[in-house]
Structures are given as structure tokens and as C-alpha cells.
């Protein structure tokens, strides 16, 4: 049953339309900001596939993101290759590392899995930070951004913005279709009850590994876009703070929904801007981590279903209130004033 | 009902976005309009104290001149770079594209500064680096609009190489973190030391910012060199000096270091640092009128003693003032600004210095010794030392 | 490498491993007994170091100095802190999924770091070791070994023995072990499981804080010192097995050896070696070296 809820589709359409039209009105900074949000949204979508759909809490997503970015820069050392070649190289590199990590990590379960993915991300970080493979802790430059033919030249920010938009839209549609396919339903089944899936004959390990590799590949794509946007990569792209940040994005947005990942990426970037803004917090803005930390804790406690689940939460609370009032009225119709009866 | 809530949420988010982005700036061509200086320094993290010192120094210079340089009032915009190179490009773009700053000042961490240099090079914005010593900034990434008021990692290392050779040591072991600053400092040392006939027998390193030195100290003891040269800064410097003494090597194998080994760390290092020789472009006890006036002014304003970072911030402001004076406050005349600044002497508290063709200070490097809680100057290790600016095409 | 140097390096590895064990044991305890993944554990280590720095002058003026007095006061404060934190924050995490625990404790790290920045500032500090422990022991003609590092190793060993004793030989230990395997059964036996959890959590925090205080004279006290320790602790727990104190000890010593000798023999790859070790052990034993206990 492929049911596309009307509210969901409307929301998604509005969101994409806004993103497509935004560059036309925004200044250079707004363009940069929206490109950044879209790249993070792609990254969040990749993690959503793992966490929200398959139920694998990966704390090492930044590794695939960073490897995609570094591959982009390292492959361009002797001169920038064409756009498609470079993007494929980045995606393949990230997918390869995802294969290696996934093969080993999926042997573990639950909390172990979380820690193991974190540790493997740290390993990638160390590789890039300490060995001559990466450029060391200061990072390396991408001197010339790639292009496709003569009219898609990523040196121009507007072009890059549209390419990022295309990637985001493509990823979203791809994942939406994937989740409604047999493969996607198998993943959902694994999330809900792995034992049962195995009992019905699925080799869950293979499905999980496939999801892991796919997720890594998409994260690598996001990394490629990021490297091209900044022109500069450094080991902090693989830090566990970014892994934590992506997790926050999908929780903030709403776990289990693709548009939740997008909303979460958007909200997270905005929150960071807000807390760092001197206009709002004055001198205290230097301690903006405090606000961010409290917001994270607050959002997990108060918004368990994320921003996307807020309408549902309000509806339930409203329904709950109406129900309580109805019960009270039926219980004692002649007692007290109308006010006491809750009208 | 559902659609209404969804639509409301959508409008709310759009409104939030609109609120988060500032209104477009009115055009600011006229003279008398303020000059916007974008300070990109760490307010959080390990280098926060350095960021504060640099900002203090910069603001002090402007304050001493009544808040105006060359008749133009100075307005500050601050961004916390968290010493995180991953966010550096975004942060510097905030300053360039959102806040439309005229001058960029930053940063402490070399990785952040490298991102700033790229952004400055691409956009043509003036950049003055008040600390980050990466050789590349006035090397392969140099540009006419990029200046540095501090040092290059190579300089103190090279100066110390000359000193150690002159003191008669023949075999030296170097130890540092394996990152650009460490490599470049040791590289400078090795260049000078081997030119004078010495030999670096072993180059030890550990990943940055690891501080487990014990195994490498054992290695040093086993190798028995004439001397040890090191580059560490901040928390690592504190620990290394203490570990070196605790391992019994202090007094038996002389330790030499780039000045950051003992700058800002003496309080924490205590007696373990006593007598250590280091090289840096600033020291305590210079006793020149310029330095004395600066120190007094700084201590009175901020109730703290100044350090090399404050001087670098102060000089960054001074460099801006010198350039502005030459173009009468009109930043539109960029070529003249750059030409004037490239030639002018900067009357720094450290001593007067000029800029090399790649815009790095050509300055005296002092030899200092730790006496109590101070790095007392005991001589000039290298006079008017210029970084070769390798890879720079200026 | 000649024999005397080799022996000294072994001593280095042992000391490093033992300190790591001290911090990691608290983490694996909280993990194994209460099933809570606590990212903020590194922050407790940092709090310990900063406590050592902040309490020293206070103890000096009030009680006339005393290293052990400072340690005692710090641990007492840590127990109170742990108790309060468990009551106010962590008790809500038991019923939640691991993902939510990860995020909430991640938020807690940010909050604790900023509180530290607000209260104590961002400077790097040093803590002086007490005079009677500040000496060195000569080893060979050139090298001496700091007595304080031997003291650290001694404290860690003593604590390890203490933990083993409490777990295997006392009623409290029995209750804790039972509570980790079957919470409801223990409750139905009339034991106050909430109080038990609070005690265990407070103990875990106190151990981490003690590790920070004891290590402070040997390392320096600086912002962000908790983060590097945290990742290593995770690796220890993965290698050693969740909830296993024995495993944490074995893993810590293993990591100590790999890190120490790796630095000397393969400096280029030193940072990566520990993770490669973890990968190899995962291939062989996905659940870690030891079972919980």
C-alpha cells in the first residue's frame, strides 16, 4: 500500500519550492546558508536511512561525509577531473569505507554498535589527522572546483546551489521510492523485529549491510558537495561532534520521516545561528554551547517525535483535553457551575 | 485541521528564517561612515584565552586613539571560530557576505586561518592574521591583501637553530606534535642547525594533541643527545616541561624550545621551567619606552599583564592604522593601502619591524630565559629575521 | 631497544593503562549495571581535574593543606554531585532508548563544558603534586622515574582490588550484580533498586572524578581534556566487554602497551593503532573479551 498522505506531500512540495526560489531573492550570504542547509539535509537523509528506517544507531556518520570530502580534494591534486568523475570517486570512496565498517560493526548489537561505529569514525579521523594520507590537522585546499561541460561550472555559487538542490531532491525522491519498495519494507521490518524477519527467511545481515553502504554513499555525496562549496577540507569534518550533530538533526526533525531529516537540518543550522547571534544574546553569545546543549536535552524530552511530529502531539493533547472534559461532563451533569464543569 | 497546522508551521519557519538573516546594509560609500572590522577569534575551547588577549590588544590600540583610525570610526563584529577549521569557511563567510566587513582579523588556529586566507583571497577582502603561524599563509597561499602581524612557525625555530649551534651542541633530538606548526618549527630549526654544522639525530613526534610523552622521554634518555629542541604550546607545553623535569632530564640534557613552550604557561609549570631558554619575537624586560608604555596601558585597562598575543593584536590594529593613514581613511584605494603597508615600519612594543614581500614581519627574534614568572630577554637570537616565503609569488 | 629501556617502556605502558582503567571502569560500571550510555563521563574526569585545581587553595587555607584532604573532599563532592545528577537527570534515561541517552548525555557534555567555562574560565592550569610524592627514582644513569606516576599506578591498583572485593565479597556487590541481570526480580525481593542505582551511579562518577584529581598533577588542567579520554574509554569498553571490570582492566593494559610501543616503534601510525587493535578484536570476538561481571 503506497499511501502518500496529503498533508505530507503538500508540506514537502512547499519546502522544495521555497528552497528552489530562495536563491533568487537572497543575497550572497543567504545563498551560502541555503546551500549549507541543503548539504546537511542530504547528510541527514543518509543517516535517516540507517537510524529511522533500519533502526541502526550509527554514531560515525561523519566518517563517510569526511571521506567523501577528502576524496574530492585528493583526487583533484593533479588537476580537477570532470564533475561526474569526481563525484563518483567521492561516493565510491565513502561507500568502500562503509562496507568495511559495516561488515565489522554489524556483528555487534545495540549499544555496542553505537560505540563501535563511533570508534571507527575516530579511526578515520586519526588516519586523516595523523598520517600523511590526509594533509594533517590544518587541512588541504581544493584549488579549482569541478565543472560539467561549459554551463555547469561549480565555481559560481548560484550553480553550486542548484546542483546541491538537485542532489537533495534526487536523494529525497530516491529514498522515498526505496522505502516503499520491497527492500525498504524489509528494512522497516528489521527495525521493528529482527528475530521475526530472520525467522521468515531474510538474511538480515545482508539487508543491514546494504543499507549501511547506501547510507555511506549518500553521506559521501554530501561530503563531495561540501568540499566543493568550501574549497577546503580538514579533519574536523570527521569529528564525532559532527556525528552527534547529524543525530540531533534527525531527532530534532522527527525520526522515521524523510522530511523530518530535512526539517531537522534546517532547524539545527538556524539554532546554531540563533545562539551565536550577538544581536540576541549580546556578550553571552560566546557561551552558546550552553543554549545548544539545553535545547538538545529539552527537545529529546519535550518533543520525542521531533518537529515534524509536533502537529500530532498537539492534536493528541487537544484530543486528550477534550476527552477529559467530556468525561467530566458525563460524570456530574448537575454539579457546579458551567465553569466548574469545564465549559 | 492538519493542513492548517502544517501551513502555520511552514509560515512560522519562513518567518524564523527571515528573522535570522539581517536586513541588507544601506550602501556605505561616504566618508565618515564607520569601518567594520570583523574579529574572528576563539571565544571557546583551548585557545579562548589567546583570542581574548588578541582582541584586547587590538581594541587597546583603537581605544588609545579615541576609537578612530585616520578619522574613521572603528566598528567591531565578532565571530567565535571555536578553533574549528570545519566551520571556519562558514564563519568567515558570515563576516564577508552577511556583515560586509571591510577588514578581517583572525585567527589563532592555523587551520582556521588557512580557511580565512582562501576566503580572503577569493573575495579580495583585507585580512590581517594576528597569530596563526602556518608558513603557507605567507607562502603558497599568499596574496596582496593578506598580512600577518605575528610570526611564521619557521622564524623562532630558525633562530633557535643558530643559538644551539653557537652554544656548541652537535647532536640534537627534536620532539613535537605531528602537525603543520610542529613540522615547520622543527624544519626551521633543522635548517639553521645543520647549516651551522650540527646534526639532528632523531626527530620524535606524537599525534596532535596527544600529551602522553613518557615513552618518548624514555627514548630521549636512551639516545643521549647533546640537547633537545621542542615545539609545544598551551596545555601540552605545560605537561611537557613538567614531565621533562620529572623524568630527570632537566639539568642533564639541556632543553631548548620555541617561545610558546613558556609563554602563558609559567604559572602552571612552576619551578620546572626555571632557566629554560626559548626564542620568540617578544619577551619580558625589554625595557624600551614603547614597550613600557604599552604594558602600563594594557595592565591598567584590562587588569592583566600583556603577553605576546596581546602585542600581536595591538600591532594588527597598528598595521591597519598605518595603511589607513596612507590612503586618508579611504579603503577604496586598496592598491595604495597595500603598497604603503608593505613598506612602512611598524612601531611595535616588541621593536620596530617591517614586512617582507610576502607580508610576514621581518623582526628581531629574542633569546629569553625563564626567571621566576617571566621570560626575561637575555639577547637577540637573530636580528631582522625574514621568513623566506617559499611558494609565494609576490 | 636495549633491555633497561624496554623495561621502562613497560612501566610507562602499565601506568598509562592503569589510569585509563580507572576512568573506564566507571563508564563500564554505569553501562553494565544500569544500561545507560553516558557520553558525559569524560566531563566527570575533567571536573575531577578542575576540582583538584580549585580545591587545593581552599583546603590549604581551611585545613592547612594536605593532598589527601583535597582528594577526600573532592571525592565527597563527587558522590554528592553524582547522587544529585542521577536523581535529576539520569534516572529519566533508564527507560529510554539508547539513541535518546546518547543525545541527552551529549547535550549534558555541552552544558558541563560551558558551566566550567563560566565558573573557572578557559585558562590552562597546573596542579602541584605533594612534596612527599614529588621525588624521582633513578633508573639507569640518565633517566629517573617520577614517584608520582608510581603513586597513580598504586591508587589505580588499590581501587581495582577494592572494586573486585566489593563486587564479589559483599552483599552490596551481590545486589548490584543481581540488579544488572534482572531488575524486576531484585525489586520484588524488596530491595530498593532506585537507591541501588543511585549508589552505583554516584560511585561511577566518584571514580572518574578521583581519576581526574589523581591525574591532574601529571597532566595539565585544560578545556576539552574530557573529550580525548572519553573516546579511549569507549574503545576500552568495546574491547573489554560491557559491564566487565576484568575486561576493562585487560583492555586498558592492552591499549597502554599498544599506544606506548606504537609511539616509539611506529610514530606515523601511533594514533590509528589502538583502533586497529579494536577492529582485530571485533573480528575475533564481537562482544568483547569478557562477559559482564
Describe the SSE topology:
The complex is a heterotrimer of chains A (343), B (394) and C (293).
Chain A: H1 6-25, H2 28-53, H3 61-75, H4 83-105, H5 110-130, E1 140-141, E2 147-148, E3 152-153, H6 157-180, H7 182-192, H8 194-199, H9 204-230, E4 232-233, H10 240-253, H11 258-276, H12 278-281, H13 288-302, H14 310-331
Antiparallel strand pairs in A: 1-4, 2-3
Chain B: H1 2-20, E1 35-41, H2 48-64, E2 68-69, E3 72-80, H3 85-98, E4 103-105, H4 110-123, E5 126-129, E6 146-148, H5 154-166, E7 171-177, H6 180-195, E8 199-206, H7 214-223, E9 227-231, H8 234-246, E10 255-258, H9 266-269, E11 277-280, H10 289-302, H11 308-326, H12 334-343, E12 346-348, E13 351-355, E14 361-371, E15 374-385
Parallel strand pairs in B: 1-3, 1-4, 4-5, 5-6, 7-8, 7-9, 9-10, 10-11
Antiparallel strand pairs in B: 2-3, 11-14, 12-13, 13-14, 14-15
Chain C: H1 3-34, H2 41-63, H3 67-88, H4 98-119, E1 136-139, E2 143-146, H5 147-169, H6 171-181, H7 183-188, H8 193-215, H9 225-240, H10 245-265, H11 270-284
Antiparallel strand pairs in C: 1-2
Helix pairs in contact in C: 1-5, 1-8, 1-9, 1-10, 2-3, 2-4, 2-8, 2-9, 3-8, 5-6, 9-10, 10-11
Provide structural commentary.
The complex is a heterotrimer of chains A (343), B (394) and C (293). Chain A has 343 residues and is mostly helical. Chain A has 14 helices and four strands. In chain A, helix 1 runs antiparallel to helix 6 and helix 3 (61-75) runs antiparallel to helix 4 (83-105). The two termini of chain A are 42 Å apart. By secondary structure, chain B is an alpha/beta fold. Helices cover 41% and strands 22% of the residues of chain B. Chain B is built from twelve helices and 15 strands. Chain B has helices at 2-20, 48-64, 85-98, 110-123, 154-166, 180-195, 214-223, 234-246, 266-269, 289-302, 308-326, 334-343, and strands at 35-41, 68-69, 72-80, 103-105, 126-129, 146-148, 171-177, 199-206, 227-231, 255-258, 277-280, 346-348, 351-355, 361-371, 374-385. In chain B, strands 7, 8, 9, 10, 11, 12, 13, 14 and 15 form a nine-stranded mixed beta sheet that branches. In chain B, strands 2-3-1-4-5-6 form a six-stranded mixed beta sheet, sandwiched between helices. In chain C, a hairpin with a 3-residue loop joins strand 1 and strand 2. The model of chain C has no long low-confidence stretch (mean pLDDT 84). Chain C has a two-stranded antiparallel sheet. Chain C has one domain (23-284). Helices cover 73% and strands 3% of the residues of chain C.
Amino acid at each position: 500500500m503506497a499511501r502518500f498522505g496529503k498533508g505530507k506531500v503538500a508540506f514537502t512540495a512547499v519546502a522544495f519550492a521555497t528552497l528552489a526560489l530562495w536563491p533568487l531573492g537572497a543575497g550572497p550570504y543567504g545563498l551560502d546558508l541555503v546551500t549549507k542547509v541543503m548539504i546537511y539535509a542530504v547528510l541527514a537523509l543518509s543517516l535517516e536511512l540507517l537510524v529511522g528506517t533500519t533502526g541502526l544507531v550509527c554514531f560515525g556518520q561523519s566518517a563517510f561525509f569526511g571521506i567523501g570530502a577528502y576524496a574530492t580534494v585528493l583526487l583533484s591534486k593533479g588537476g580537477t577531473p570532470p564533475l561526474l568523475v569526481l563525484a563518483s570517486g567521492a561516493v565510491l570512496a565513502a561507500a568502500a569505507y562503509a562496507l568495511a565498517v559495516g561488515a565489522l560493526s554489524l556483528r555487534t548489537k545495540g549499544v555496542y554498535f553505537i560505540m563501535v561505529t563511533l570508534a571507527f569514525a575516530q579511526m578515520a579521523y586519526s588516519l586523516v589527522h595523523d598520517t600523511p594520507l590526509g594533509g594533517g590537522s590544518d587541512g588541504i585546499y581544493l584549488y579549482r572546483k569541478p565543472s560539467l561541460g561549459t554551463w555547469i561550472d561549480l565555481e559560481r555559487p548560484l550553480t553550486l546551489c542548484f546542483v546541491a538542490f538537485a542532489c537533495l531532491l534526487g536523494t529525497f525522491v530516491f529514498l522515498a521510492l526505496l522505502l516503499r519498495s520491497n527492500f525498504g519494507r524489509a528494512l522497516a521490518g528489521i527495525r521493528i523485529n529482527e528475530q521475526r524477519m530472520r525467522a521468515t527467511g531474510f538474511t538480515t545481515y545482508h539487508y543491514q549491510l546494504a543499507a549501511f553502504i547506501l547510507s555511506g554513499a549518500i553521506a559521501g555525496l554530501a561530503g563531495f558537495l561540501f568540499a566543493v562549496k568550501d574549497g577546503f577540507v580538514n579533519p574536523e569534518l570527521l569529528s564525532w561532534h559532527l556525528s552527534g550533530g547529524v543525530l540531533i538533526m534527525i531527532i530534532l526533525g522527527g525520526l522515521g520521516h524523510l522530511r523530518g531529516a530535512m526539517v531537522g537540518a534546517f532547524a539545527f543550522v538556524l539554532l546554531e545561528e540563533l545562539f551565536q547571534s550577538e544581536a540576541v544574546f549580546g556578550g553571552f553569545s560566546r557561551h552558546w554551547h550552553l543554549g545548544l546543549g539545553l535545547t538538545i536535552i529539552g527537545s529529546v524530552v519535550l518533543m520525542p517525535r521531533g518537529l515534524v511530529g509536533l502537529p500530532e502531539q498537539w492534536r493528541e493533547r487537544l484530543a486528550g483535553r477534550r476527552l477529559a472534559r467530556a468525561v467530566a461532563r458525563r460524570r456530574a451533569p448537575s454539579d457546579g457551575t458551567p465553569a466548574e464543569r469545564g465549559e | 485541521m492538519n493542513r492548517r497546522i502544517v501551513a502555520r508551521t511552514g509560515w512560522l519557519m519562513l518567518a524564523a528564517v527571515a528573522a535570522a538573516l539581517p536586513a541588507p546594509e544601506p550602501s556605505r560609500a561616504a566618508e565618515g561612515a564607520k569601518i567594520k572590522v570583523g574579529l574572528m577569534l576563539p571565544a571557546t575551547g583551548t585557545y579562548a584565552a589567546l583570542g581574548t588577549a588578541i582582541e584586547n590588544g587590538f581594541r587597546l590600540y583603537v581605544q588609545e586613539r579615541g576609537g578612530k583610525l585616520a578619522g574613521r570610526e572603528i566598528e567591531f563584529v565578532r565571530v567565535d571560530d571555536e578553533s574549528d577549521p570545519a566551520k571556519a569557511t562558514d564563519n568567515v563567510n558570515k563576516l564577508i557576505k552577511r556583515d560586509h566587513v571591510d577588514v578581517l582579523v583572525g585567527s589563532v588556529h592555523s587551520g582556521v586561518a588557512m580557511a580565512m586566507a582562501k576566503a580572503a583571497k577569493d573575495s579580495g577582502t583585507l585580512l590581517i592574521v594576528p597569530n596563526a603561524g602556518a608558513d603557507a599563509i605567507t607562502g603558497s597561499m599568499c596574496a596582496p591583501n593578506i598580512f600577518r602581524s605575528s610570526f611564521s612557525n619557521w622564524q623562532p625555530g630558525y633562530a633557535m637553530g643558530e643559538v644551539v649551534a653557537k652554544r656548541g651542541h652537535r647532536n640534537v633530538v627534536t620532539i613535537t606534535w605531528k602537525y603543520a606548526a610542529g613540522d615547520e618549527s622543527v624544519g626551521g630549526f633543522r635548517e639553521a642547525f645543520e647549516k651551522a654544522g650540527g646534526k639532528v639525530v632523531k626527530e620524535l613526534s606524537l599525534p596532535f594533541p596527544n600529551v602522553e610523552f613518557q615513552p618518548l622521554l624514555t627514548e630521549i634518555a636512551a639516545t643521549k643527545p647533546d640537547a633537545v629542541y621542542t615545539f609545544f604550546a598551551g596545555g601540552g607545553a605545560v605537561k611537557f616541561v613538567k614531565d621533562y623535569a620529572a623524568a630527570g632530564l632537566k639539568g642533564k640534557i639541556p632543553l631548548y624550545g620555541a617561545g610558546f613552550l613558556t609563554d602563558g604557561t609559567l604559572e602552571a609549570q612552576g619551578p620546572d621551567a626555571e632557566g629554560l631558554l626559548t626564542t620568540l619575537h617578544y619577551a619580558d624586560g625589554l625595557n624600551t619606552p614603547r614597550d613600557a608604555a604599552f604594558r602600563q596601558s594594557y595592565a591598567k585597562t584590562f587588569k592583566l599583564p600583556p603577553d605576546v598575543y596581546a602585542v600581536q593584536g595591538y600591532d594588527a590594529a597598528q598595521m591597519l592604522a598605518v595603511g589607513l593613514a596612507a590612503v586618508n581613511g579611504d579603503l577604496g584605494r586598496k592598491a595604495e593601502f597595500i603598497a604603503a603597508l608593505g613598506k612602512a615600519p611598524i612601531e611595535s612594543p616588541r621593536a620596530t619591524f617591517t614586512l617582507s614581500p610576502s607580508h610576514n614581519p621581518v623582526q628581531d627574534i629574542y633569546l629569553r630565559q625563564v626567571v621566576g614568572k617571566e621570560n626575561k630577554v637575555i639577547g637577540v637570537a637573530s636580528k631582522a629575521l625574514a621568513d623566506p616565503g617559499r611558494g609565494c609569488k609576490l | 631497544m636495549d633491555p633497561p629501556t624496554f623495561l621502562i617502556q613497560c612501566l610507562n605502558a602499565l601506568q598509562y593503562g592503569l589510569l585509563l582503567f580507572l576512568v573506564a571502569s566507571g563508564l563500564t560500571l554505569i553501562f553494565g549495571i544500569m544500561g545507560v550510555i553516558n557520553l558525559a563521563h569524560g566531563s566527570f574526569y575533567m571536573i575531577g581535574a578542575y576540582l583538584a585545581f580549585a580545591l587545593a587553595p581552599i583546603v590549604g587555607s581551611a585545613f592547612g593543606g594536605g593532598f589527601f584532604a583535597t582528594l577526600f573532599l573532592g571525592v565527597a563532592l563527587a558522590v554528592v554531585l553524582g547522587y544529585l545528577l542521577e536523581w535529576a537527570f539520569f534516572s529519566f534515561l533508564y527507560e529510554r532508548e539508547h539513541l535518546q541517552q546518547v543525545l541527552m548525555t551529549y547535550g549534558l557534555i555541552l552544558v558541563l563544558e560551558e558551566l566550567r567555562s563560566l565558573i573557572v574560565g578557559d585558562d590552562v592550569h597546573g596542579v602541584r603534586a605533594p612534596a612527599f610524592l614529588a621525588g624521582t627514582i633513578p633508573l639507569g644513569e640518565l633517566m629517573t622515574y617520577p614517584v608520582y606516576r608510581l603513586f597513580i599506578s598504586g591508587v589505580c591498583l588499590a581501587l581495582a582490588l577494592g572494586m573486585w572485593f566489593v563486587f564479589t565479597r559483599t552483599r552490596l556487590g551481590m545486589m548490584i550484580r543481581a540488579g544488572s541481570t534482572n531488575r524486576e526480580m531484585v525489586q520484588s525481593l524488596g530491595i530498593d533498586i532506585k537507591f541501588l542505582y543511585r549508589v552505583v551511579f554516584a560511585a561511577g562518577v566518584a571514580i572518574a572524578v578521583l581519576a581526574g584529581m589523581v591525574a591532574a598533577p601529571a597532566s595539565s588542567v585544560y578545556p576539552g581534556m574530557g573529550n580525548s579520554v572519553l573516546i579511549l574509554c569507549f574503545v576500552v569498553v568495546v574491547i573489554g566487554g560491557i559491564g566487565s571490570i576484568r575486561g576493562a582492566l585487560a583492555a586498558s593494559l592492552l591499549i597502554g602497551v599498544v599506544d606506548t610501543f606504537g609511539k616509539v616503534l611506529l610514530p606515523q601510525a601511533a594514533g590509528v593503532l589502538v583502533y586497529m587493535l579494536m577492529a582485530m578484536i571485533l573480528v575475533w570476538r564481537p562482544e568483547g573479551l569478557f562477559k559482564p561481571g
